[in-house]
């Protein structure tokens, strides 16, 4: 793939001077050896969901974004699509080369359930080309009207089929939660939907990516569980986490999304309690990062501060 020079003035303008501003204020990325000194999330297990910086992927393209992520210290990337208006016609093969060029590891990808239903083998082809060990969805298993025990049982059967197809390719299939999965069934107020999903999916075929923020929102709207317990009791099913932080608020969800380390979720307790340090990949996500003010470095500034905060977690 030809690599035309990126206009650095254009890049710095697009990210509001982020690179220079946050590098001066940031701290050096810790070495892998730091993992032995109580780091709860080793650097080699820290990644980013590209949806977080979607504005930069769209305006600058994968190449420029990957260069900056590598500079910050991120090592793993989770996709939320394979296109960019800044790089018309880019292919997954070219994206894979850009990852390799920047020493980044593609770890997973969010794909819509509709895409799996209509183009399952194509999505697995793309995952295979990118070298993804995991591919999955961030869609709720059912529509709001179908939040019933039977609805989730049917969804689990579908997930098992997707997982079986992925396993044939040497890929693991996963589902990423939001808060609605933790609600009680419409037809059985004593049954939590997430429990149905866990019980009805084959642990060898369907894995789970806990979005920690949304799990705590789920605890707020449908109390009676601790997100940590799900991981402790099903350790092999959670290879991936979304490390998303939230500050308590009067909002219906109980939290507002903020940069990692700026919120009230006790990640120290979370990671210390689940144990198995180094087994899980923690992918930073902040839905509203593109709204970060220019004077704070924009989305890339949020990315750098959040990376530093994840590295600073000690247990």
Automatic annotation (TrEMBL):
One GO MF term attached to the UniProt entry: isomerase activity
UniProt-recorded name of the protein: Sugar phosphate isomerase/epimerase
The entry's keywords: Isomerase
Domain Xylose isomerase-like TIM barrel: 66-290
Originating species: Jiangella asiatica
InterPro entries: IolE/XylAMocC-like (IPR050312), TAT_signal (IPR006311), Xyl_isomerase-like_sf (IPR036237), Xyl_isomerase-like_TIM-brl (IPR013022)
Coiled coil: none
Superkingdom as given in the UniProt entry: Bacteria
